[in-house]
Amino acid sequence: MPRKSSKKSILLVEDEPAQRNALRDKLKREGYETLSAANGEEGLQMALDKHPDLILLDIIMPIMDGLTMLERLRENDWGSQARIIFLTNLGNGETADRAAGQSISAYLVKTDWKISDIIKKIKEILPD
Amino acid sequence: MFIGLGFLGAGLFNGFNMVVTSDLLASRLGDQSEILGSWTWVVSGLYLGFMILHAWYIWWRKKTGKQNKTLSDSATYVITLGLTVAIALFFFILPLPSLYFADGMIGRPVEILPAALFGLALLAHGARGLWRKQSFDHWLIISLILLVAASVPYMLFSTQVFDINFAAAKIIRMASYVAVEIGLLSSMFKLFKRAEKQSEQVEQQNLQLLGTQQRSSRSLSLLKAKEHELNKKVSELKVTRRAMLNVLEDLDHERTSLQEEKAKDEAILSSIGDGLVVTDNDRKIVLMNAAAEKLTGRKFKQAVGSLWPEVLPAVDEDGKKINSSQIALKSALEQKSTVSVFSKYYFTRANGTRFPVAATASPILVDGEPAGAIVVFRDITKEAEIDRTKTEFVSLASHQLRTPLSTVSWYAEMLLDEEAGKINKEQKLYLNEVYHANQRMVELVNALLNVSRLELGTFSINPSPVNFAEASRQIVKELEQKIIAKKLQVEEKYDDSLKSIPADQNLVRIIFQNLISNAVKYTNDKGSVSIEVKRVPAGKKVGEHTVKEESVAIVVADTGYGIPVEQQDDIFGKLFRADNAKSREPDGNGLGLYIVKSILDQGGGKVWFDSTEGKGSTFYVTLPITGMQAREGTRKLN
């Protein structure tokens, strides 16, 4: 039985519960430890508390959006090195360019990515 | 005349006197003869004196300007004759006293009366002074002197009826008569002479008149000719005048219509909602309409003659001057063609605020050379606002629509992968329908968003080196499942000499995605699809078209349904699907080719096709090897 610490932890920052749950269930089945936050503020708090291995970050969210959360996170020592995947439904454009300007691991448009492909991408970023 | 009558009357009395003093009668009358003789003598003297004085009196009255009541000719004759007869009868009927006294010193005292009258007349006529000029008066004076002489020296001292004195007096009186006769004759002679002269003169004048008349008649005919000519001229002038009036009237009409036209033009100019500025070739302001004044806050009167770029410099959002090559007016004058810009720069109002501008500049060409330009511009603050709102809406829609779609997609995917437990065949079939319908929805949303970006003009073109062959392979790979499912033969042919071309990766992907997926979608099972990407030198043919410059060509051919001839013109239209495609493949939104054409139109390429219904279609795309031109926009196409 693998130790708890050997499991990779992934923080899901997503305001849409159905999507958050789908990702949580999938990731769990794939053997990841998951943390969930419903907005940028919660997400930032949790990220700084738990130091997850990867953060799946939505962009458009209430209270604090994904871009702002990322900026805040980068101000932190640990946060400046945190791995981030933007998983959003914002298409290419100004926001995407802004996001792409940050040192992030990937920018995925939800409708273009099957959930199985998202797992594949995560596995690329977090090799065993 | 009175003088004449006087002498005539005196002559009569003297004749009478002669008769009574003649031997024949004297012997019969006896004493009576003596008496009668002396009375007739005296009376004739009185009568003559009176008449001569009367003549003077009339002259004098005339001279002093008073009206005269002169006796008529016949009346004087009657009076004279009457007097003569009266005196004669008087003598015969009444015995008169003797008038001479043979015994006295003065033989005939009564003679003093006619002598006095003659003396008075002599003085009066002498004073009149005409005797110096007129021969009759001259002779009258002589006659009067003689009459006085006859009366005073001879008759006063004649004591006998027929003595020497008496005879001398008679002779002198006769002489005076003669003198008057001479005067009369001489004056008559002069009168005749004068009349003759006058008649000669009259004749001469007549002759002259005749000459004049002849000349006159010549002149008259000349005049008539002239008059005729003049009349002709006048009527000609009348015609000319009428013509002139007509012309004037026409001109008036013309002027009125011109004025109306001008007023209309001015009304049009001033009622144009857009700012209108006319400049000369040096970009100096010639005309500004009311809207331009209102928009810029500057008065035409103050701005006229100034450089338009100085009056209203084009600046960016922050107020910095922008590169003049981007300004419509300058470009229009340089390119000699109409140039439109939309939201590229701002104008600063007189109050310092700025507004985004849409401007169209057209050069005014005279013999092909620009003489000036017309700039029509408007404040597009509202449009920019609407544009922003639309962009925001598109952005929001893209997010909001995609969120449930991705949710459905993910859950359906997990169910199909049996992550939530085993599913039977039927359940799998149904879930597949859900999944695919959802994917169609995703595609539709993406296509609609792209169309809205295309139409907003907000999509950008960011050229970077793109490997066209690689882009094609990627799409074929993505469509692998469908190709296998339909058992299609796919042939790919890529030109090794083709290097990467500056283009927008995303747009190239959209082009390949649409062309290849269409070929796959609209080809029957076991059909074939061929994809070719090649470099084409300038002047070579791609399909039926000759490329003007070195290009990259994409040729996608299939053995599919083909496009009905009558619908081939509409195939690039928005939301258009050919009837045969619709009936056989419900999966499709009619936006793919529209998007491809829009991208190539904006990116500097071309797209066309050959198609035969039932046999298949071939789509051609060419893009200059120099690649796509960069284009700024706020949105990328997905």
Description of the molecule:
In chain A, helix 2 (40-50) packs parallel to helix 3 (66-75). With 128 residues, chain A is an alpha/beta fold. Chain A has one domain: Response regulator (Rossmann fold, 3-Layer(aba) Sandwich). The model of chain A has no long low-confidence stretch (mean pLDDT 85). The longest helix of chain A has 13 residues, at 17-29. Chain A contains five helices and five strands. Chain A has helices spanning 17-29, 40-50, 66-75, 94-101, 115-125, and strands spanning 9-13, 33-37, 54-57, 84-88, 106-109. Chain B is of the alpha+beta class. In chain B, the strands form four sheets. Chain B has a six-stranded antiparallel β-sheet. A five-stranded mixed β-sheet of chain B has the order 8-10-13-15-14, covered by helices on one side. In chain B, strand 14 (606-612) and strand 15 form a beta hairpin. The chains are: A alpha/beta (128), B alpha+beta (638). The interface between A and B is medium-sized, with 24 and 25 residues.
Summarize the structure.
The complex is a heterodimer of chains A (128) and B (638). With 128 residues, chain A is of the alpha/beta class.
Which H/E pattern describes the elements of chain A?
EHEHEHEHEH
> Number of DSSP strands of chain A?
5
| Overall structural domain count of chain B | 4
Largest sheet of chain B: 6 strands, antiparallel
- Count of strand segments of chain B: 15
- What is the helical fraction of chain B, as a range of percent? 55-70%
Write down the Rg of chain B.
74 Å
Strand-residue proportion of chain B: 5-15%
Question: Could you tell me how far the N terminus lies from the C terminus of chain B, measured between alpha carbons in angstroms?
Answer: 150 Å
Write out the CATH superfamily name of chain A: Response regulator
Proportion of residues in extended strands of chain A: 15-25%
Q: Quick one: biggest sheet of chain A?
A: 5 strands, parallel
- Spans where pLDDT lies below 50 across 5 or more residues of chain A: none
